[in-house]
Amino acid sequence: MMTENAAPLEIERSLIGTLHLDGLDAPYVNLDQQPLIHSRLRVGDTEYAYESSIPVQGHSAVLPEAITQFQSEGRQVLIAERSDRYFIYLA
């Protein structure tokens, strides 16, 4: 379930890791401890908005291509994982 809270979920920089995908690295955070998926996340001064999600199983064909496309458009990508899905957030 996703919430559209007015305030973004604050994520500490120390919780940001790296998701390695076919020679592509993306910032990553595990949100399994969150009861809801937020529509916005904030890391430091950067605010990210939810874009889409894909299943963790079978992501290898879709996720690297999506990240590359967003980055080519000048967007910053943050991948959040919760349960069996990757959630793509963009700044």
Report on this model:
- The chain has 91 residues and is mainly β.
- It has one domain (2-90).
- The protein contains one helix and nine strands; from the N terminus they run βββββββαββ.
- It has one helix spanning 63-72, and strands at residues 2-3, 9-11, 17-21, 24-30, 37-38, 40-43, 46-55, 77-82, 85-90.
- The strands form two sheets. A seven-stranded mixed sheet has the order 2-6-7-9-8-4-3, with helices on one face.
- A hairpin with a 2-residue loop joins strand 8 (77-82) and strand 9.
- The two termini are 22 Å apart.
- The model has no long low-confidence stretch (mean pLDDT 91).
Write the layout of secondary structure elements.
Layout: E1 2-3, E2 9-11, E3 17-21, E4 24-30, E5 37-38, E6 40-43, E7 46-55, H1 63-72, E8 77-82, E9 85-90
SSE arrangement, N to C: EEEEEEEHEE
**Number of beta strands:** 9
Spatial extent as radius of gyration: 12 Å
- Choose one word for the global shape: globular
